[in-house]
Amino acid sequence: MSCPFGRVNGEEGGQERSLGDFKGLNYTSYLQLHHILHAQETITEAHDEHLFIVVHQAYELWFKQVIYEIDSVRAIFSEEEVNEHKMLEIVKCMQRVVLILKLCVDQFLILETMTPLDFMEFRDYLSPASGFQSFQFRLLENKLGLKNELRVRYKQETYKKVFGDDPEILKAIKDSEEEPSLQQLLSRWLERTPGLEEEGFNFWRKYKIAVDTTQEEKRREAEAEKEEHMKNHIYAQYKCRQELFDSIFDEKIHNALMARGERRLSHRALQGALMISFYREVPRFHQPYQLLNLLMDLDSLITKWRYNHMMLVQRMIGTQLIGTGGSSGYQYLRSTLSDRYKVFIDLFNLSTFLLPRNSVPPLDRQMKTRLSTMEEPEMEERRGKVVRSSAFSASGFVSSESPCPLDNSEEKMFSDSDLEKSLEESIERSCEASM
């Protein structure tokens, strides 16, 4: 059979044809390079203005991709039941977002090749245009979960004021404020963490017992100390830790902190995040733990991006000049570095409430089974064991009321010792595979 690309109008060609001989889609038209490469219109003769435009256009393209990935994750979390088999897709999207943000942070190095004198050649011509008018960055903040009441006000006005009467932008911003944010969807998902239910494993009760035990040991250590200075020091540490633990065990205190914007996750969601952090080694919590870390990476990188922006502004115009859009410039950017702009601040603060490994409540046999993964079918057949397919399911946090894989009434085809042995081997293989 002859090559179809060697035909011309159905006839055999007399010679080979090059790629350029074929009509239709090509690299330039597919990427619409004629539009992109002609979008750098400078308004002065300054050499560095072209660089300034290209870098900011690149930022906006990356913001668009980040928003696209965040929207994909939000769509999965918005489903009635979050299928845990989609966790790999969620983690992949968030890893991509983190890598893009790392690139955005480093992109400031290119702008820093421009000197303040170079910038002065065209800066005055930019007014009243300002980076504050990047509506995509505002969309990203809203979609992640930054609340309006936590924003620093722009010239004592709402941030939407700078977009004037552009109906398309204002509608997009309004929608982003009203739709469930990634932070809200994450909170709902964490509330369904298996093991939180009171009639089952009841992680929160076990965790409180462990905390009370460690705190009692600390109190006794303080009482046993004979040197007054050291005794006061140990007792002060004990009281400080006790106040911190009270703030998570007392739901009223937690809700008060949420109302002040100091905490973002619901009380039950915080419990779920803590449980995932303690038992991250079990197979079912591998990817959820990865996700929590990626969200902290995202928050850290956005803070680094803000910091690099602030330092660039200080380098270019100092700390006293007003920004081209009328903001306080350096001072405004500096104010956005506080924790109020960290959407996932609760995840950072989880380490405050961790316990030593030897104090972590051990998982019972039912929870080990529930949080393990399904064995290979051929392995089950070789052992002559019949296991219900859902017994080692890695399905998502669909409901915290999910039944234990094997009901007491269900006929067991193997002994408890065999189950424990099978479970331990399964977990060991999963851990080895993840290393």
From TrEMBL:
Xref: InterPro entries: Trp/Indoleamine_2_3_dOase-like (IPR037217), Trp_2_3_dOase (IPR004981)
Pfam family, one: Trp_dioxygenase
Catalytic activity: L-tryptophan + O2 = N-formyl-L-kynurenine
Cofactors, names only: heme
Enzyme Commission number(s) of this protein: 1.13.11.11
Gene3D superfamilies recorded: 1.10.287.3810, 1.20.58.480
UniProt keyword annotations, A-Z: Dioxygenase, Heme, Iron, Metal-binding, Oxidoreductase, Tryptophan catabolism
GO biological process, one term: L-tryptophan catabolic process to acetyl-CoA
Annotated spans, Disordered: 395-435
Pathway info: Amino-acid degradation; L-tryptophan degradation via kynurenine pathway; L-kynurenine from L-tryptophan: step 1/2
Cofactor binding mode and count: Binds 1 heme group per subunit.
Compositionally biased residues, Basic and acidic residues: 409-435
Keyword Metal-binding: yes
PANTHER family in the record: TRYPTOPHAN 2,3-DIOXYGENASE
Assembly description: Homotetramer. Dimer of dimers.
Family: Belongs to the tryptophan 2,3-dioxygenase family.
Main function: Heme-dependent dioxygenase that catalyzes the oxidative cleavage of the L-tryptophan (L-Trp) pyrrole ring and converts L-tryptophan to N-formyl-L-kynurenine. Catalyzes the oxidative cleavage of the indole moiety.
Official protein name in the record: Tryptophan 2,3-dioxygenase
Taxonomic lineage of the native organism: Eukaryota, Metazoa, Ecdysozoa, Arthropoda, Crustacea
